[in-house]
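Observation: inputs received (chain + nicotinamide-adenine-dinucleotide).
Thought: call the complex predictor directly.
Action: predict_structure
Action Input:
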Amino acid sequence: MSKRILITGAAGFLGSHLCDKFIAEGYEVLGMDNLITGDLKNIEHLFGNENFVFHHHDVTNFVHVPGQLDYILHFASPASPIDYLKIPIQTLKVGSLGTHNLLGLAKEKNARILIASTSEVYGDPLVHPQTEEYYGNVNTIGPRGVYDEAKRFQESITMAYHRFHGLETRIVRIFNTYGPRMRLNDGRVIPAFIGQALRGEDLTVFGDGSQTRSFCYVDDQVDGIYRLLLSDYSDPVNIGNPHEITIKDFAEEIIKLTATDQKVIYKPLPKDDPMQRQPNITRAKEILGWEPKVDRAEGMKITYEYFKSLTPEELNKKDH
Ligand code: NAD
Ligand code: UDP
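Observation:
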């Protein structure tokens, strides 16, 4: 009998790729989403597949799923700074109440649960690159605190269920991941820069562009999550690509990739924007035998092709 897995945030960027992966691996997939930042377009190709069902549901309300459940992936949460600044309370609720509901469901069904944490638990890190042992540097009351602290609480309650109830839990700390199906106007740097290049606008670099990020292609991220779920390791694991770049250099790379002659313009740096970010992936290599395979040039080419295929209406849509 095939294994049944519940994936929350299924209509989002990562959730939809995870649905594809688990369907391809022969699982029965229940996708759940309230569509607050996601889009059914990301999973419409799965409608009609006998191994896929979709539940339109807000996971901050009691979650009920009939029948057996073997695994839960909790990926529901606004994930871009623009989104979580626009819906701060929902962000806190999905990380806290939503996670509590799903842990309760996992306990009831005797299912293994993996929760999507983030490099943001390290805040504006004082340790570089970030290892899982680092406790982080988060401004609890700053505007980003709603996301960072929700995710930190999510990790704590997950470990409490693991220790107190003996629940099988997994925690992935995801570093900036990109690829097809990102929302063009979610404000994250890759859709922002590509969208600007495609519309013939200048690329907006925040601050002086000396801040760094390390971008992981979605297929690598999904492979890391898959391996972690099936492992027997319950402490957090960083999954990301350690290849680091400044945002200013990245803007130049996009200008070359898109073969446009756009300029870079500078805008104020958002409050608490981390100055550097790079995963230490020693743990993922040792425990999961995982490391990224897709380099930025290759991943960005695929991502650019995806955004180029959008309709002019989609390209010019300003809000979700
Ligand atoms: P996304 O916005 O594309 O997807 C999130 C999905 O969750 C959306 O479809 C949204 O509608 C859904 N959702 C939000 N609140 C919900 C609720 N209360 N009930 C049901 N559904 C809800 O974002 P993403 O990039 O795919 O991120 C997915 C997860 O991965 C998030 O938990 C995010 O924090 C985490 N993550 C992502 C990245 C990244 O680089 N993409 C980095 C770190 C962590
Ligand atoms: N950024 C930028 N211009 C934009 C959007 C983002 O310079 O139009 C910067 C942002 O300030 C941050 C980096 O790009 O330093 C990555 O931002 P993103 O929102 O993608 O991810 P996060 O800050 O959550 O890592």
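Thought: report the result.
Final Answer: The pocket of uridine-5'-diphosphate (ligand 2) is lined by residues 80-81, 176, 187-189, 192, 204-206, 211, 213, 247, 270, 273 (CB under 6 Å). The longest strand covers residues 112-118.
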